[in-house]
């Protein structure tokens, strides 16, 4: 196409039906501050050009038109090469230049983000890779909270612990990292949520293919010229260097040898590792080669990791038997280059969020926003992408773990919204952009959970707006009481009690010339996390699941036959591990507790919320009778590990055993597991079809089901759920199990857990017309086997997450008998019949309430007498008086009330300070009240309290007329009393000129 050396005219494009028409001119003053105009409402983008700083005022074609009609997204992209003079390039700082340096000529093929994804996937499909959908942001790896890289879902394949579905895989993996959250919105390319394109090889191709294909992809598919690319290799990796130089043909001057810090990847101090090679985009190829650390000039596009070594404990490297390839290409970065924009935030992945937020905040455009506003706009845009995907993957707001990360991201977005002047909830509106872009990207599970995501966002946003009101009030109280630094405990109180972010506490403190003891805050945070982790340990996180077990174990997978067999006549013991050390042993004798691996087993291993089977192993070829009681079963990478105690005899590896499960226990587990499916279906039917499972427990004595819900369930809701479930039980629906392809199951309507990772083929448990779920658990063959279903409790366990506990089958009979026994005992103690218990309890409550009122009345009368006596002990100084004394009360409200009453009774020139000792709590309290005439003369109750706090080490403060404080009681209160009395006396003498 002919290239015109003309300047662009500013204009709007208007899309009417399928035609574009020019409708109005845009002022030149607006154009001078904008290299890109976006008409979001009509989904039309114009890249404008400038020549020697001037814009033409006549209708002249763009420098170079390049049109792409994206039918799937119905967007029309128009771009041009920017023509600038050498003088302009020299005068423009790198940080202010557009995303492709001094010229947009020859940077690559213009592509939308959808096209980039498709092009990458299709390229490697043609290289015999299988394409896998993005794994959940919640990884299987218990050592990390979130999926932080494209290789995370394949870690077990890289470590050789699990067989991959193919030796060549390609993905576009959604990732989240929050370690650099403070840089988000400040730099061009920092994000919490991003998409990583990657191709992987497990023992198949290696360096040559990985390098050649990467270059071919960039050159021929994305059409990025060779002169725009430079590469780096590990300084000792001559093989990679020679491939780049001799096979690919890259100029040696453009191949950088880097040290281990930059170009050597490892999974930890030991384990698989290897050199890597990185491909960078050069924004200024016409300049002399510079340092790769110049991130204004060089942008890392593609990282190729060659896993070829195993690092031993002594630090030495040994070649791996299976060499692997792990690569990563940031979608946002590639979009920045190919879409010719200044930064990642102005790509079609992010710009719609900025434009929508501008609309909500009444900002004319992102381009005209202040620098501070741009930062907030980018933070909001980044965070809304992250939170929408986190909730879609089953993460709910909480104060620990992933839930805390989600809460922090939502609250940061809201806070930056307030900085833009947005006072009302807005995240639900902004999430619509995420749903639209997710639909284009094929992220079905995001759009399918739209209602759930909107509800979670709205609930947390409203809660945080309320938190801001309450927290700010408490923060200002703390600011008044603090001298120069807010203590870590105070900052943690704001966070833990009010949900107040530390960074917001720091910002407001800074505005008041104060700092926050951040180290102390983090100490409190760490203590909380330790407690949280300790309280939330499940059996599935047991030592055996986190241990590095012998490699030989993984060669022989366990075959599970427990769906149809409760006993296996001949199972072979393949491995015995000591319970404590987890080291292999050849034999186990009576009294030993060990983990036992079998080649075939009927035992169900704990998973999917269902607890493990119990039973026994009986040795078949032992001269001495040997029996092992199995109490738990865990599975690790396809191996069933049975925890058992040898009751008699001796068990050896390779020995044949008869394995038997406790059938009665299994039957009750089957009943409760199928009941959870019925409960899930009933919740969707009766309460809200968008309800999704957030967790479960299937045990013998009860079932527990956690689910997303914006509100608690009332008695009528629970009664309706029970009625529906018991009707399904009476209708005797058959349960059908089928193994089918995952995609086929989802298409048929099977419900999947979004934080679960599924294989290509899945097991579907179908109760026709009632429920269909992906599930590997054990179930009844017919719903009539459940017998009866009863909900025992409903409660909230986290923001937007409710919990129902219930009982069914024989466990329900036991529960009814226990309740009958309780009722019988209660009626006996209350001397009434069971039917009369409610009336008798109500009568007792009325009597107790009356006695409490009488007690309170007597206490108030006694306190009034105390106050009157104490007022008579006030000491006069001129026209003023003061009282410093101890008050015998255990109630802080009474201390406060009595202090003010006495001060009021003594007139307009009195100051009263009362202490109380609360022995049961090991604390003391103090209140100081100053009459209005003395306040006018400069006496300040807050300052008096602060003086006491300096002596006692407590905390306190307030206003001039009234202040309070307190601390631990193991201090010299008599000294504090004497100091306060002296201070009051001196102040009154000064006021009265004595």
From TrEMBL:
Coiled-coil residues: 834-861
Single GO BP term: mitochondrial alanyl-tRNA aminoacylation
Residue sites binding Zn(2+) per the record: 673, 677, 775, 779
One of the record's GO cellular component terms: cytosol
Gene3D superfamilies, A to Z: 2.40.30.130, 3.10.310.40, 3.30.54.20, 6.10.250.550, Bira Bifunctional Protein, Domain 2 (3.30.930.10), Threonyl-trna Synthetase, Chain A, domain 2 (3.30.980.10)
Cofactor(s) listed: Zn(2+)
Protein name: Alanine--tRNA ligase
